[in-house]
Every structure is written in structure tokens, then in C-alpha cells.
């Protein structure tokens, strides 16, 4: 009598148990599938781009109109370095340029003089040529007369000597003319010196302009701890500017979920500054590389392969860069903890 | 929309069962990460707590109602029921 209901109860119990366990397994599989198809992470970080504000010139900081945490716009004056040494350098460069220009004018005059001298030398050649021709004709004329003793032989000899002298004079005049032509030269040296002085002046002016540092982008002044009077080395970073024209959430997602993430995907970002406000984001890119402890090592050394026998390997995570749409600026602070949900959440209908 | 209605259901019916989530109004609305004493606890931990609570609560309720006698493999059944509750919370409140 007792066995029949017990057996019935037992059968019902087994059916219930199998149904519950089966439902739980199915639900577990479904949730696991959903979780990998719609990845999310609660260890994301709010990120933005930075500018390490520095001037390429050094000197004493004379004006510092900005203060810590202030918002600045692109082009605003951030600080000013004492311009006096650079103004003096500009003046020196201007003087050097004036000197080079004067030297160029001087060389131009000398060039005119040398050109005239060369012309004179050419005229001398013409004269020497005419003299030589005359002496030549005289010798030709006197030669038959001297042969028939119409004139003294002495006179003929003198005519030949005169012709030889005229030949030598002509050769000398040729040489002098060639030398004078070469000596004319050009203004290349003086022009180059002027160009060098001009470049030095331009550089000095550029350095003078660099004493005024303006904001390269809209953003917030951070880690500014000095006041005017500080002496800065060239290229010394005075503070960091957090650009606020674009904000990002960097979500480290496991590699197995990356096939479900595509650039352009919608994302819901919660900044934990206010965990109730969903921010809309869009996947911009997925990181192409992270440093792995297994591949770390000196590039020129041998591969560093640890001896190990790990059976369980933790999935590598890659940073997924999500651009956050314009939102309440008080929610966006660099380094804030964020939660990112890819292709789901209230911001992605 | 879905989350709001779920919260409404959640608090109307089971307020006494789950004081943990009633930290600050409807804590489910917002990021699936819960700040407790300056640390963030993930949503799945809340689901697991709910699963344990549902398993224990169902055991007590079934004992009172006399349904417990019908069951066999009780441990597995209650664990499965708790798991189902936990997964249902995840799917309704935090899932896509």
C-alpha cells in the first residue's frame, strides 16, 4: 500500500528535479551565449588626450594667468617666459643681417670696379693687337727694301725687334685680360652670408615668439604646482592639459569576446561618478597590441621562455577604445572607473 | 523601460526578501556595478546572492507548504532553482 504512492512521489520528484536541472542548464547556456555575444566590462577607464605643455625655449616664467583645474580654450594665453634675452638675440641678429647686407652692397661695388678693369684689359688687348699688326706690316714692307740695300740693315733689324716686342705685349695683354675676367667673380659669397644672417634672424624671432605659450586645444589645466618666477629649462613640461574635445572609455575586453566587437558598434558607458546616467558611446577601435609577459625580453637578447606547466591560461584582454558622445562634463574625468556594455544597455536601443 | 518595470516588480513583490539591493532607491537602474563601502561589486555577485536566497527561501516555503516531501534529489533541485533565479535576474536586469 505504501510503495505505490512513494513510487509515484519519487517519479514526480525525479521529473521535477530533471526539469529544474535541465532548465537551469539551458538558461546557463543562454546567458553564457548572451554574455559573449554582448560583451561588457566593469573595469573600464575614462580617458582623454593629453598635451604636456612646454615651451621649446627656457627662461624665467614671468606671467602665469592660468591656475590648477581651470578650463582654457584653444589659443588662450597659458604662460609667458621672460622675452628679454630673446629680444636681445633678435636685435643682435638684425644687426648681423644689416652687416651682411652692407657687405653685399660693398661687394657689388667692387664687382663693378672689377668688371670695368676687365673691360680695360680687353681694350689693352685690342691696342696691343693693333701695335703688333703695325709692326708686322712694317717688317713686311722693309724686308725687300733691306734685301736690295735701299735702307740700312739696322733699320730693318729695329723693325723686327719692334715686332717681337709687340708680340710679347700682345701675349701679356691677353694674359692680363684673362686674369681680369677671372677676377670679376660674383656675389655668391656675400649673398650666402646675407641669407645665413636672415635665417639666424628668423630663428631668433621664432624663439622670441615661443616665449608666449598658448593653449593648443580646449581643455583643463592639471598638475600645475608652480607660480610665476620659476625658471624653466627648454622643453620643460610645466603642466598637463587634458583636452576635453573628445572623451573616451578604454574597456579592457577579453580576446574571446573581441569577434563580437566592431568599430562603430554602439556602447553604453557608465561613469561611476554617477552610475545612474548612461552615456552613449561608439566603439572607435580595438587595440592592436599589448605587452605580454611571455614575449617580454630585450630585443637584442635571446627569447625569454619561462619554464612552466600551466594548464589554465587566463584570457588576454585588449583595450577597446569607445568614444563617448558629448555628455555632462562633470561625469567625465580622466581615470574615472567606468562600466562599458557593447551593443546593449539603455543608450543603445 | 524594461529595467524600470523590472525594478517596480522587484520592489513591490520581494522587498522583504532582498534588503541588500534596496541600498539607494532602485539600485538596479544604472551601471551593473554596485558601490558598497567604496568598492564596486559586480552584478553577477548580486545575482549569485539572489540565487542563494531563492534556494533557501524556496526550501523553507516548500517545507511549510508540504511540497518538499514530493521532491527527490533535493540538493540538486534547490540548487537548480536558485541558479534559475540568478540567471533570470541577470537576463532581465543586466543582460542585453
Question: CATH topology of the largest domain in chain A, anyone?
Answer: OB fold (Dihydrolipoamide Acetyltransferase, E2P)
Total number of beta strands of chain A: 12
Output mean pLDDT of chain B: 76
Query: Which word captures the global form of chain A?
Result: elongated
What distance separates the N and C termini of chain B?
13 Å
Mean pLDDT of chain A: 92
Helix/strand-derived class of chain A?
Answer: alpha+beta
Main β-sheet description of chain B: 2 strands, antiparallel
Total number of helices of chain A: 4
Question: Using only CA atoms, what is the Rg of chain B?
Answer: 15 Å
Q: What's the number of structural domains of chain B?
A: 1
Output the CATH class name of the largest domain in chain A.
Answer: Mainly Beta
Cα radius of gyration of chain A in angstroms = 47 Å
The succession of helices and strands of chain A, N to C, reads: HEEEEHHHEEEEEEEE
Strand ordering within the main sheet of chain A: 1-8-11-10-9-12
Task: Determine the structural class of chain B based on helices, strands and strand pairing.
Answer: mainly alpha
How helical, in percent, are the residues of chain A?
Answer: 40-55%
| Oligomerization category of the chains in this entry | heterodimer
Outline the low-pLDDT stretches of chain B.
1-27
**Uncertain regions spanning at least 5 consecutive residues of chain A:** 1-6
